[in-house]
Design a protein that fits this description.
The complex is a heterodimer of chains A (about 300) and B (about 290).
Chain A (H helix, E strand, L loop, with lengths): L5 H15 L1 H27 L5 H5 L10 H9 L3 H33 L3 H4 L3 H4 L6 H39 L6 H6 L4 H32 L4 H20 L3 H10 L2 H4 L18 H22 L6
Helix pairs in contact in A: 1-2, 1-8, 2-5, 2-8, 5-8, 5-10, 8-10, 8-14, 10-11, 10-12, 10-14, 11-12
Chain B lengths: L2 E12 L2 E12 L3 E5 L6 H8 L6 E6 L8 H4 L3 E4 L11 H11 L5 H9 L14 H13 L5 E5 L7 H15 L5 E5 L3 H4 L5 E6 L2 E7 L3 H4 E6 L4 H6 L4 E5 L2 E7 L3 H5 L2 E4 L3 H13 L4
Parallel strand pairs in B: 3-7, 3-8, 5-6, 6-7
Antiparallel strand pairs in B: 1-2, 1-4, 8-9, 10-12, 10-13, 11-12
Helix pairs in contact in B: 4-5
Chain lengths: ~300, ~290
């Protein structure tokens, strides 16, 4: 009898998630990237035809009302590097944020059905006829969402930004500007990618309680997991709204349902900013999130039903 | 010969209905137990209990383990086929092979591929694209390629055509049985299976009605075809069950003296079906 290590088993379980959720893990992000790339490509072609400026269309308008697109780009190329970095930061953050909002929305669905669906279609009897523990199953769902899927979206985001940068650089060649110093270097694509990836790691702990709660509901709900997942929030929020005319609970849950960077208001360099961790109570909140999330994951492992519905 | 399953006083209720009512039995290594019962008798619940797939009360030891604890370790030595298609519809045949190879240490990929090659199933197809019979064929091929100590089959040939049913039982008999693997098989096709069974267990309304080695059945149970003039004598010997047959009656007896029975008419060993109907009738206390 051959030996299969827990890590080898986990890799196979991750493959299973990929096979099952091919739409989430592959098709949606690739479609998003293709759609955005086509949109930018079309914009560039139209710019060459002289009736569209992709730079002004996707940034906080570097083009003044009284100047042509060519003049604006030449003026932009002569701007200080910090300003150019800020402009590109804004420029690239729009599709990135949209892509990741799509990702986190899909993750809500994924975690809500991850353990419920196999019981509903009775395939749990097949999975449970294999030597796989509850812990391995639940961990594979967690890792598949937070690491594998997020990794795919990160790579798609990188690909999208590289495509856009390439398109813009080609567009910039039509003007008398330093293409590298205007379109490529200040975009800081790879620096932003690694910074963003690090941010994603922090976000895992930030979002863990919310998604672990969905996973727990998915593990124990006999029907309508969305209703069961929402019920405690509704029950807690309505009295708070009536008594205090506002709901901190609701706000807090929403904050933890989405990555911190996506909802943080403030400066254009939000995405690169890790200073928020130093804010009063933020680190503590992150730690509490992580602990609460781990408790909920443990509960999902403990209560994951073996029986079909 | 070691004990594979030791069940004592297993109980489980769904509301007011008892799915297992003090079920106790033992299965030795190399045995093939046929679990027979009407729909809703508690067969599937009993099988699920053995696999740790349902909660229950009582003491249960399967291959030295309590199925409720570390079920995944037990599944390295136990395989299971449920009574309905449980393979996920999105799973490709090739993915299913890759998956089991990746998680089951006793899986033989070549054997699975050879078994699938004997069917019309394409490895590129998804389960959802296969017919009901093909899904069963696929599941059986995957499971028969796993070398385990205990094989649990819950209505394994449901939905299969006669040719594949025959082929399955032949394969089970010729390729799989090695006198070390034990099998528990729940089925309605008792007559086709009886040649490979070593033990028989009848279950109804959550209770065990009969648990016996096949070789002991002729010694304990006898059927007699009795003509009308001897009905009174036949009834006086307290048969388990009686049924009409072409102007006569067949009486089923338990532990009756063969000398007395021979005086009533032609005696023979009851079929498994007749024995089952007789035992259910006896347990329910009415005509079936």
């Amino acid at each position: 009898m051959k030996t299969i290590t827990p890590i080898q088993k986990q890799l196979v379980l991750l493959k299973r998630e990929f096979w099952e959720q091919r739409i989430i893990f592959l098709i949606v992000p690739v479609c998003c990237v293709i759609f955005a790339a086509l949109a930018w490509g079309t914009a560039t072609v139209r710019a060459w035809l002289g009736n569209y400026n992709p730079v002004s269309a996707f940034t906080y308008s570097i083009q003044r009302p009284d100047e042509t697109a060519a003049d604006a780009i030449i003026r932009f190329s002569e701007a200080p590097m910090e300003l150019k970095q800020q402009v590109w930061e804004q420029f690239y953050s729009v599709p990135t944020t949209l892509l990741f909002l799509a990702f986190w929305s899909i993750m809500m669905y994924y975690y809500l059905v991850a353990l419920y669906q196999p019981r509903k279609d009775r395939s749990i009897l097949f999975w449970n006829s294999m030597p796989i523990s509850n812990m391995q199953t639940v961990m594979s769902k967690l890792i598949a969402g937070f690491v594998l899927a997020q990794g795919v979206y990160l790579v798609c985001m990188l690909a999208l930004q590289l495509v856009v940068m390439l398109v813009l650089a080609i567009y910039g060649m039509g003007f008398d500007v330093d293409v590298w110093g205007t379109f490529i270097a200040p975009a800081r694509i790879f620096q932003r990618f690694f910074s963003f990836s690090a941010f994603c790691l922090i976000n895992i702990f930030w979002c863990l309680p919310f998604y672990a709660w969905l996973l727990l509901v998915s593990a124990i709900a006999k029907s309508a997991p969305l209703a069961w997942a929402s019920a405690p929030l509704v029950i807690a929020t309505i009295p708070e709204l009536i008594i205090f005319e506002g709901s901190d609970i609701f706000v807090k849950v929403v904050q933890h349902a989405m990555p911190r960077f996506a909802i943080q208001e403030g400066k254009p360099d939000t995405m690169m900013n890790t200073g928020f961790l130093a804010q009063s109570g933020m680190l503590m909140e992150l730690m509490i999130s992580a602990i609460l999330g781990i408790i909920l994951v443990a509960a999902a492992i403990r209560f994951n039903r073996s029986e079909d519905l | 010969m070691s004990t594979v399953v030791q069940a004592k006083n297993l109980n489980k209720c769904y509301g007011d209905v008892a799915a297992m009512d003090n079920i106790s039995f033992t299965l030795e290594q190399g045995s093939i137990l046929g679990l027979i019962g009407p729909n809703g008798a508690g067969k599937t619940t009993t099988l699920k209990a053995l696999l740790g797939l349902t909660s229950f009360e009582g003491s249960l030891d399967v291959l030295g383990r309590d199925p409720r604890v570390n079920r995944h370790l037990l599944m390295e030595d136990v395989c299971f086929i449920a009574d309905v298609g449980i393979l996920p519809r999105w799973l490709k045949v090739s993915n299913a092979i890759d998956f089991i190879e990746g998680v089951h240490p006793a899986f033989n990929r070549e054997r699975a591929e050879a078994l699938i090659a004997e069917t019309k199933i394409s490895p590129r197809k998804k389960v959802g694209q296969l017919s009901k019979g093909m899904i069963t064929q696929l599941h059986l091929a995957l499971i028969l390629a796993i070398d385990v100590k205990l094989l649990v089959l819950d209505e394994p040939t449901l939905g299969l055509d006669i040719i594949y049913q025959k082929s399955f039982f032949d394969r089970l008999l010729n390729d799989y049985l090695d006198h070390e693997t034990s099998i528990i098989i729940s089925t309605h096709q008792v007559e086709e299976l009886k040649s490979i069974l070593t033990h028989l267990m009848f279950i109804d309304e959550g209770r065990v009605l009969l648990d016996m080695a096949m070789e002991d059945i002729p010694r304990v149970y006898t059927e007699v075809l009795v003509k009308p003039e001897k009905y009174a004598q036949a009834i006086a010997l307290k048969p388990v069950y009686e049924r009409n047959m072409l102007g006569a009656k067949t009486f089923l007896y338990e532990n009756a003296e063969s000398r007395q029975l021979e005086a009533l008419g032609d005696i023979h060993v009851p079929t498994v079906s007749d024995l089952f109907i007789g035992k259910v009738h006896q347990a329910r206390g009415k005509q079936v």
